[in-house]
Amino acid sequence: xxxxxxxxxxxxxxxxxxxxxxxxxxxxxxxxxxxxxxxxxxxxxxxxxxxxxxxxxxxxxxxxxxxxxxxxxxxxxxxxxxxxxxxxxxxxxxxxxxxxxxxxxxxxxxxxxxxxxxxxxxxxxxxxxxxxxxxxxxxxxxxxxxxxxxxxxxxxxxxxxxxxxxxxxxxxxxxxxxxxxxxxxxxxxxxxxxxxxxxxxxxxxxxxxxxxxxxxxxxxxxxxxxxxxxxxxxxxxxxxxxxxxxxxxxxxxxxxxxxxxxxxxxxxxxxxxxxxxxxxxxxxxxxxxxxxxxxxxxxxxxxxxxxxxxxxxxxxxxxxxxxxxxxxxxxxxxxxxxxxxx
Length: 342
Ligand SMILES: *[C@@H]1O[C@H](CO)[C@@H](O)[C@H](O)[C@H]1NC(C)=O
Ligand SMILES: *[C@@H]1O[C@H](CO)[C@@H](O)[C@H](O)[C@H]1NC(C)=O
Ligand SMILES: *[C@@H]1O[C@H](CO)[C@@H](O)[C@H](O)[C@H]1NC(C)=O
Ligand SMILES: *[C@@H]1O[C@H](CO)[C@@H](O)[C@H](O)[C@H]1NC(C)=O
Ligand SMILES: *[C@@H]1O[C@H](CO)[C@@H](O)[C@H](O)[C@H]1NC(C)=O
Ligand SMILES: *[C@@H]1O[C@H](CO)[C@@H](O)[C@H](O)[C@H]1NC(C)=O
Prior knowledge:
By secondary structure, the chain is of the alpha/beta class. About 45% of the residues lie in helices and about 20% in strands. It has two domains: about 5-195, Rossmann fold, CATH 3.40.50; about 200-330, N-(1-d-carboxylethyl)-l-norvaline Dehydrogenase, domain 2, CATH 1.10.1040. It has helices spanning about 15-25, 40-45, 95-105, 120-125, 170-185, 195-210, 210-220, 220-225, 230-250, 255-265, 275-280, 285-300, 305-325, and strands at about 5-10, 30-35, 50, 55-60, 65, 80, 110, 130-135, 140-145, 145-150, 155-160, 190-195, 330, 335-340. Strands 5-2-1-6-7-8-11-12 form an eight-stranded mixed sheet, with helices on both faces. The protein has a four-stranded mixed sheet with strand order 4-3-10-9, with helices on one face. Strands 13-14 form a two-stranded antiparallel ribbon. The protein is globular, with a radius of gyration of 20 Å. It starts with 6 loop residues before the first strand and ends with a strand. About 40% of the residues are buried. One 2-acetamido-2-deoxy-beta-D-glucopyranose (NAG) binds near residues 138, 204, 208, 261 and 264. One of its GO terms (biological process) is pantothenate biosynthetic process. Catalyzes the NADPH-dependent reduction of ketopantoate into pantoic acid.
């Protein structure tokens, strides 16, 4: 790999990871390596098809380098984009996935293109001082069987997670600036600097901790749920708790966001992605969306009874998903479960 241009590792070949990999490679200012866990052979042979409002329609696209796992990468990288789901309760927490490459790349920046709050904490604890960035994507895109269907233009917010262990702010800021330059293609996508990463993440929770969670719990689309009165009876009370926890954490979510978010999917027979995950028997990002805010509520002494109830009900949903997926095996005789992973 030539050392004169930066190298970027994209971990995760979902829609988000692929649009990032494509944008970076198309812009041509860095070398892109994509980690493809499923369908590796097919991707190597046939590549991906894009149906994109931004880049057009074409097939056979491949990133410059394709690897089956992070362990298969041999180089040091300048940027490591994590675009897999964040599942601390699953078989592969983020730290386990990227440990090898982070240790090998002490000067890299890790960019978490993921949901939820406090997601940087495990990385700060294990890799103190490492530059960690937050990526929030506003894209409407899917990847089904290697067909990337992108319905709106890519727009991302990038910023630095702040922590006292990250002493070298100047390096962190120059990494941030460099990444924005690698990613931003004039007239094609929007890359904005996120000056207040934590506030942005609190804002995302208004929708993600209320509408996603409740629809996921009962597997019902937004319009039908609205007819049943979920907005006033469930979502608003949950959102009020999110506002209160954020406030105790030192962040004021703008009040108008509540109605905006509640109206977002008005009239759409829309199933939020957490609901779709349950539909398809995939684990949900319960800990980073609900568990972490709830732990903060406990820490700050903020009452959050609805969030607490939703959390424990969704834990049961998660258990069911994990058992079906063989991640938990129930010893029916003894009445004890055991995980098939550490
Ligand atoms: C891409 O294909 C879709 C249908 O799959 C079509 O609606 C769209 O116009 C095409 N875009 C371009 C740029 O050809
Ligand atoms: C920095 O990260 C550590 C480890 O997660 C955490 O305990 C501490 O509260 C963080 N500091 C700030 C200011 O967020
Ligand atoms: C995503 O795109 C689909 C198809 O254009 C549209 O129906 C849906 O409303 C969009 N969703 C969001 C959240 O923009
Ligand atoms: C839910 O979180 C994801 C990831 O941060 C974000 O892309 C999405 O916009 C959020 N949804 C809303 C409606 O805020
Ligand atoms: C949300 O929708 C309600 C009912 O349609 C409407 O009265 C209200 O003005 C909307 N609020 C926002 C912020 O869009
Ligand atoms: C919540 O739903 C929105 C809309 O489908 C999606 O963008 C977001 O990723 C979902 N969040 C989670 C945690 O599934």
